[in-house]
Design goal:
Elements: H1 21-46, H2 52-56, E1 60-63, E2 72-77, E3 80-86, H3 89-97, H4 109-112, E4 120-124, E5 147-151, E6 156-159, E7 164-166, E8 178-180, E9 185-188
Antiparallel strand pairs: 1-9, 2-3, 3-4, 5-6, 6-7, 8-9
């Protein structure tokens, strides 16, 4: 009697056999397209990065050691005026005496200065009404009714903490991001 042996059929290229040539071509084509898209998109995205001159103005350092008490200076930050004022004890007391709830843009002097450095008020020198440069940072300039800054364009008056007190300006003068790198140097930006 003859015995029948069972043999496995030869490989026919069915999906059970693993990766086929067609799968390899598909993976290679998608990979090639992905690399090509990256080569095209990278320069387009990179051109949106800030230029070197913008990065150079991203932050500035201001030496405040020469600013006498009661004096303010005007410098430039990101092509806009920046006011740095060394407040006197009288100016600090005047700012603290104003009830914050009575202000159009309620902020205390504490909110606008750094802890332990209340005597240094650093603000952008741009009126929040229409962008004029207020007076009060230069020697002999008009400081307005509240002893801070006065915008000659439309008559906004700011107090010693650069808070809007009278006139059309809707907000206080902006306080930029800044930190003291030492007792006499401030890094703005």
């Amino acid at each position: 009697m003859a015995t029948l042996e069972h043999t496995e059929p030869a490989a026919t290229g069915t999906p059970e056999d693993g990766v086929r040539r067609r799968d390899f071509i598909n993976i290679a084509a998608v990979s090639f397209a992905g690399v090509g898209a990256g080569v095209i998109v990278l320069p387009l995205v990179n051109q949106m990065n800030p230029s070197a001159d913008v990065l150079a103005e991203a932050s500035i350092e201001v030496d405040v050691s020469a600013i006498a008490e009661g004096q303010a200076i005007k410098t430039m930050f990101r092509k806009q005026p920046l006011f740095v004022r060394h407040l006197t004890a009288t100016e600090i007391a005047a700012a603290d005496a104003v009830p914050v709830t009575s202000l159009r843009d309620p902020q205390s002097l504490e909110d606008r200065t750094k802890e332990g450095k209340r005597q240094w008020l650093i603000t952008m020198g741009v009126c929040t009404h229409l962008g004029c440069v207020p007076l009060g940072a230069g020697e002999g300039e008009v400081r307005g009714e509240f002893g801070g800054y006065f915008c000659p364009c439309h008559g906004s008056h700011y107090d010693t903490a650069a808070r809007i007190r009278k006139g059309p300006a809707p907000r206080n003068l902006e306080v930029p991001e800044y930190s003291f790198t030492s007792d006499t140097v401030v890094q703005v930006g």
